[in-house]
From TrEMBL:
Source organism (scientific name): Desulfotignum phosphitoxidans DSM 13687
Protein name from the UniProt record: Glycine cleavage system H protein
InterPro entries in UniProt: Biotin_lipoyl, GCV_H, GCV_H/Fam206, Nucleoside_diP_kinase_AS, Single_hybrid_motif
The keyword NADP is annotated on this UniProt entry: no
PTM-bearing positions, type N6-lipoyllysine: K68
Entry annotated with the keyword NAD: no
Cofactor note: Binds 1 lipoyl cofactor covalently.
HAMAP family with a match to the protein in the record: GcvH
Gene that specifies this protein: gcvH
Cofactor(s) named in the record: (R)-lipoate
Domain Lipoyl-binding per the UniProt entry, residue ranges: 27-109
Function: The glycine cleavage system catalyzes the degradation of glycine. The H protein shuttles the methylamine group of glycine from the P protein to the T protein.
Domain of life: Bacteria
Similarity field: Belongs to the GcvH family.
Quaternary structure and interacting proteins, as annotated: The glycine cleavage system is composed of four proteins: P, T, L and H.
Amino acid sequence: MELHGYEMPEELYYEKNHYWVRIDGDILVMGMDDFAQKMAGDIMFVKIPFAGKKLKAGKKLAQVESGKWLGKVYAPVNGVLIEGNQALETDPMLINKDCYGEGWMYKIKPADMGEVENLIHGSDAVEEWLLADIEKYKED
């Protein structure tokens, strides 16, 4: 769905720092959402942590850099990182070009798939959260 100039697919779950999660069988695919990639500008670097890294929901997983921004990536759920998108090492701007497709960032094996329900999901919840962040970042 398109909300206030940002593409926010309805089937995805969103972490409060603007990373999306898609359920793919028993794993989660994660990436940066349209709002974050537009705010950040051209993505210049994405850290790809080692496979097997244990993740704790809300704790730093990696970092992303653009020409004007250095951001932290937080784990959306408890679990284990099973894969990073190696293509981002040579072309981090895949995030800008296709943040919901080729620009995916990480694949995670969650400790408990039910934790996904703690993320932001559903058109009303996503719109309310996005509007609040649009206002918040407009003031900065």
